[in-house]
Design a protein that fits this description.
The structure holds 2 protein chains of 2 kinds. Chain A is α+β, with helices and mostly antiparallel strands. Chain A is about 35% helix and about 25% strand. Chain A has 3 domains: about 5-55, Uridine Diphospho-n-acetylenolpyruvylglucosamine Reductase, domain 2; about 65-170, 2-Layer Sandwich (Uridine Diphospho-n-acetylenolpyruvylglucosamine Reductase, domain 3); about 180-280, 2-Layer Sandwich (Enolase-like, domain 1). In chain A, strands 4-5-10-6-7 form a 5-stranded antiparallel beta sheet. Chain A has a 4-stranded antiparallel beta sheet with strand order 11-12-13-14, with helices on both faces. Chain B is α+β, with helices and mostly antiparallel strands. The longest helix of chain B is centred in the last third of the chain and has 14 residues, at about 105-120.
Amino acid sequence: MKPPPFEYARPASLEEAIALLAQHNGDAKAIAGGQSLMPMLAFRLAAPSMLVDITRIQGLNSIDIDENGISLGALVRWRDIERHAELAAAHPLLAAAIRHVAHYQIRNRGTVGGSVAHADPAAEMPGIAATCDAEIIIAGAQGRRSVRAEEFFTGSLTTALAAEELIAAVRLPTWKHGRRWAFEEFARRRGDFALAGVALYYDLDTDAHVVDPHVGAIGVADRPIRLKSLEQLLAGRVVDEALVREAAATAAASVSPDDDIHAPGDYRRSLLGVLVERALARAAGLQLAEQA
Amino acid sequence: MTTVTTSFTLNGKAVQADVEPRTTLADCLRHKLQATGTHVGCEHGVCGACTVIIDGAAVRSCLTLAVQADGTQITTVEGLAPNPTELSPLQASFRKHHALQCGFCTPGILTTAHALLSEEPDADEERIRDVLSGNLCRCTGYVTIVEAVLDARAAYAKNTKHAKVAR
């Protein structure tokens, strides 16, 4: 379908954009690459009175890596992450997850800020943000505020972002050298949203015990979630085959996804267990025996 | 109904159109600029038929507003052939390999492959298949499309920019 009618503005500054959003009393929406919002408009799931195009605002499209971590500007595209020379080493989990985002043409236009603001429960970037204790940097009339990813995503397509605020950046903590990690997702076709996905990482102490495990899942709830019971199970343990199997069962038991047209909830729950098993085995460098 | 003017370069020519803000680039190309080579399938970013090249990057023109294209350089399927009687090397390769049947998806596949090979002239089969996963074709089964793109790579190699694909 064609999008419903709206007004259009293309401000040159963040301040101007925020003022425009505020003037429309919650009825204006920001657009950047449009790869989530345009389908919402085409399906008429969204009908804002104004679109505020933020793509020409300077200073929102940089990838900065320093001793405090990694900052991804809201206008950073998947293509920019994919082609960045240092990011694959600076944050291998992010780089691996972003390889799964949509298709070539969408990756050329879709942005970090757009994906995080859209908050699809199966999307990779929100999943990585939740898994990695990211901070969402939000710009508003009163200046900037920072919200932890886990508090930012409040439900399906729902976030803590106010109607007159904009996402400025997503900040990921520094990735520690030598960290164990894996990203696994399953989609029925390449580029589709995942039916389920897992991102995980942990550090090792000198006796190969798991330290500070982080496990996040997408596609199995109304938002990206952390699997806290699994993190508790892993902490302080040595990852071996028995623990991998136990982790898979723990992960599957910890979620209760709804049935939808793409898959029954039980299927997603079972799939999550399989993906946790694969991810943990890969992170630990284990070859698992085939199970009957 | 308010309209806005959008101006961009289309296949090397400066063009402008007065459009409603909600007009997609795909509809602007087809209905305002009569550039009907760009096809519109799903209108929500799934099928890839409407792929055009904006500032060197293949994008879905149904997921881009015409007003957002203001100031950009756009190449559509009409911009690939050097003149009306000669195919581009990529198009010639599609013909040679029978890489189309009904032809509806072909403009989007040609623009996608052209953008890919312009940026990555040595893309391997896996990369080509990965990229073409964003374009739905219900006729061919993709085998001949992949063969055609692979065969066209020589024409995009850095030092032989104008090489022709054998007919």
